[in-house]
Amino acid sequence: MKLQIKEILYLLSAMKDVATAQGKQSLTPLQQSSLKAVYAHVFGHKDELQFTQLLESPLSSFTQVFPNAIKAEYLLRFLVVTALMDRTIDSEKIKTVFEYAKAAHINPHYLSQLKKTLEGDFQWLIKDIMRKNLESFDIFPDLEDEKDIDNWLFPYRGDKKNLQLAQRYESLHHLPKESFGYHIWMQFKKNNYKFPGEEEGANYQFIMPHDSLHVLSEYDTSPYGELLVSVFTSTMLQKNSIDGHVIPVIYSFYLGIKINELAGSAQVMIDPYEFWDAWYRGSQMQINLYSKGWNIWDVAEIPLTELRKLYHVLPRAKSNERKTY
């Protein structure tokens, strides 16, 4: 979303307000880097952010700067990330996010996830997160029963193996090594993944877009790579971006809360510059790989470098060394 400079500085001021719990806490080095990264990577400024440009108490002027509910909700997404950036469930920071939502008279669903987090209702939270994640994909059928969802995610178990489909994916290794299809084959082989059609293979409608995004974005399958590719995916999709992707992946791979067996959990360290670079890169994608019209076979033979250009996958921002805090 394009914002005017005064709106950008207000957004950053609000992020600082959440990061400090309205001045009750100090601004950590991690949060300082996050603010600078948003200024540079999301909004493309070449100069370095000066914190003296930021407002001290921005909440009271929220609706004056952001009278439009759509823009106000867009700002709120940054505040949610900020509330969780210091790798803790901090009630003061989360409640500050609620104050901004209240001021703008908006109540997006992801606020319910934060409320349930503060209440410690992780049973509800995990179920809701899984649901919102799947609902963000156009290809997901409208299923309610958990067993039906599991059968959709893993449809080849038992006597439902599809060896013809699995062999078709296996044949991708015959393509030229520079092709997208060959890189997909390598993605599965080097990670010891099962192809769709094999007994423990995941549904091709779900797993192929996901692993294609790994290949296109150049994020690996380590927990940190999964975090970055999920952030990238969230802004590519827009639908349920926070409640279906950003909150789940921060909980899973940053806070170490296991959402499901397929994803697993870990506690990685975040480089804010890489986080917000992934956010921006995903937003610039010109196609939704989870739409019903996309499939790998239409693009398998295209060289990977060319496909990145066609889909407008921007190069990763250059950094000398990953920073941890």
Quickly list its features.
325 residues; mainly alpha; 2 domains; 15 helices; 54% helix; globular
Order of helices and strands: HHHHHHHHHHHHHHH
Poorly predicted tracts of residues: none
**Can you summarize the main beta sheet?**
none
Work out the radius of gyration: 20 Å
Question: Count of DSSP helices?
Answer: 15
The amount of beta strand, in percent, is under 5%
Overall shape: it is globular
Count of strand segments:
0
Domain count: the total is 2
Question: What value does the average pLDDT take?
Answer: 93
- Measured as a percent range, the helix fraction is 40-55%
Intertermini distance: 29 Å
Derived structural class = mainly alpha
What does this structure look like?
There is one protein chain. It is built from 15 helices and no strands. By secondary structure, the protein is an all-alpha fold. Helix 11 (204-217) crosses helix 12 (223-237) and helix 12 (223-237) packs antiparallel against helix 13 (242-253). The longest helix is centred in the first third of the chain and has 16 residues, at 69-84. The model has no long low-confidence stretch (mean pLDDT 93).
Per-chain topology:
Blueprint: H1 5-19, H2 29-42, H3 62-65, H4 69-84, H5 91-104, H6 110-119, H7 122-135, H8 146-153, H9 163-170, H10 180-190, H11 204-217, H12 223-237, H13 242-253, H14 272-283, H15 304-311
Helix pairs in contact: 1-2, 1-4, 2-14, 4-5, 4-13, 6-7, 7-13, 10-11, 11-12, 12-13, 12-14
